[in-house]
């Protein structure tokens, strides 16, 4: 059976000569190709064939239309979009250079490099927001570094700022990437350009320090070493949480800032015995997900939730789960009480409908369960 590359090569001939795959994400694949008429390299993005549903195609073409409206030196330009032999595709500039993720693998950036990066990204977002668009998934892997400038890409989950949230996604679903997602986005609430600025803060923190901001979120005193003293107040403001845990009432409606659980439970913490608010059980990997990816989501969920709640020690939880798991429905309420926690959270990570998704179940001490689906989450 012909490979995807071979089939795409045939579908786009003679206009484009497809050479090889250069990147792959949860929804799409990007190929290096040659524009035959103009004799220049281009990047061609397609929907992964196994995920090419009508819904995925609509979102994909919407991304192409958004990119086509953005003419800015720090936003990747798009040349063409269409469908050929069952492939939904668009053609964009081939950006030579590393992504910020690849650059950070070699260590933190120099201070002047971070300042230039920040200016470029903020200039690009200024143009994006002026068009009434919120990116919603800004992260190092979506930022290219080339010829001394930063270029942002991948507007697959961007939305017009005036568009209602439910028009871009499904009720009970939150999309974005853990570690760079603003609190209001994690809560499943409306996002604005300010939400993108939270992601910029996380990106710049990581660029200065070489450490992911997500690893600091559970700390009462984050480690700001590596960030210039004059910049710390700015990043603190960008990364400030807008939602705080109440002393007497803990609302689970969208409580997971990490896995962004959208729930409907509301409960009081009135127990005389000190309990952890929640225990995060190991997420299970579904089809198309490596165990390491599921483990990373578990860790990030616990880290994010630490800013809102008392999270049970993950080592104790893992040991308990090894003995009593893996099916939460089979665990008696008496076993749940052994963890001294109010709620258990368990997730199953999978790829489907063009996105990575997590099915999350919250179970209380009475054994009652509320399950929701979170769409488009990622570990980095």
Helix count equals 11
Beta-strand percent range: 25-35%
Query: Quick one: biggest sheet?
Result: 5 strands, antiparallel
What class do helices, strands and sheet pairing give? alpha+beta
**Which regions are unreliable across 5 or more consecutive residues at pLDDT < 50?**
160-174, 242-273
Kindly report how far apart the N and C termini lie: 33 Å
General shape: globular
The succession of helices and strands, N to C, reads HEEEHEEEHHEEEEHHHHEEEEHHHEEE
Question: Radius of gyration in whole Å, from Cα?
Answer: 22 Å
Biggest sheet strand order reads 1-2-3-5-4
Q: State mean pLDDT (0 to 100 scale).
A: 75
Number of strands: 17
Helix content: 25-40%
Describe the structure.
This protein has 380 residues and is an alpha+beta fold. It has eleven helices and 17 strands. The protein has helices at residues 4-12, 54-68, 100-104, 111-130, 165-168, 183-186, 193-209, 232-238, 291-305, 314-324, 333-337; strands at 16-24, 28-35, 40-47, 78-84, 87-93, 98-99, 133-134, 143-146, 149-152, 159-160, 249-251, 266-268, 276-280, 284-285, 341-352, 355-364, 369-375. Strand 2 and strand 3 form a beta hairpin. Helix 4 runs antiparallel to helix 7 (193-209) and helix 7 packs across helix 8 (232-238). The chain is globular, with a radius of gyration of 22 Å.
């Amino acid at each position: 059976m012909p490979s995807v590359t071979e089939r795409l090569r045939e579908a786009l001939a003679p206009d484009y000569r497809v050479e090889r795959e250069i990147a792959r994400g949860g929804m799409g694949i990007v190929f290096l190709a040659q524009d035959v008429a103009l004799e220049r390299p281009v990047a061609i993005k397609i929907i992964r064939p196994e995920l090419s549903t009508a819904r995925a195609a609509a979102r994909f073409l919407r991304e192409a239309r958004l990119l086509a409206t953005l003419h800015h030196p720090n936003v990747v330009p798009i040349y063409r979009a269409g469908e050929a032999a069952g492939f939904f595709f668009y053609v964009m500039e081939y950006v030579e250079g590393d992504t910020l993720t690849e650059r950070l693998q070699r260590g933190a950036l120099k201070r002047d490099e971070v300042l230039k990066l920040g200016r470029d990204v903020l200039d690009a977002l200024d143009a994006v927001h002026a068009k009434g668009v919120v990116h919603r998934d800004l992260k190092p892997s979506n930022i290219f570094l080339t010829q001394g400038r930063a270029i942002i890409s991948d507007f697959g989950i961007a939305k017009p700022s005036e568009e209602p949230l439910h028009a871009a996604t499904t009720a009970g679903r939150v999309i974005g990437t853990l570690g760079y997602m603003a609190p209001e986005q994690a809560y499943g609430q409306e996002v604005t350009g300010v939400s993108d600025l939270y992601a910029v803060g996380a990106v710049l923190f990581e660029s200065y320090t070489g450490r992911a901001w997500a690893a600091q979120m559970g700390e009462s005193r984050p480690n700001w070493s590596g960030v210039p003293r004059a910049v710390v107040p700015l990043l603190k403001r960008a990364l400030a949480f807008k939602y705080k845990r109440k002393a007497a009432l803990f609302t689970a409606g969208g409580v997971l800032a990490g896995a962004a659980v959208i729930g409907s439970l509301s409960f009081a913490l009135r127990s005389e015995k000190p309990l952890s608010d929640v225990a995060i059980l190991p997420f299970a990997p579904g089809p198309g997900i490596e165990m390491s990816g599921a483990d990373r989501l578990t860790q990030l969920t616990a880290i994010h939730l630490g800013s809102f709640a008392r999270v049970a020690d993950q080592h104790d939880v893992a040991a308990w789960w090894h003995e009593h798991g893996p099916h939460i429905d089979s665990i008696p309420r008496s076993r749940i009480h052994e963890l001294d926690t109010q709620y258990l959270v368990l997730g199953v990570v999978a790829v489907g409908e063009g996105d990575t998704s997590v099915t999350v179940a919250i179970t209380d001490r009475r054994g009652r369960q509320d399950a929701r689906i979170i769409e488009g989450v990622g570990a980095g």
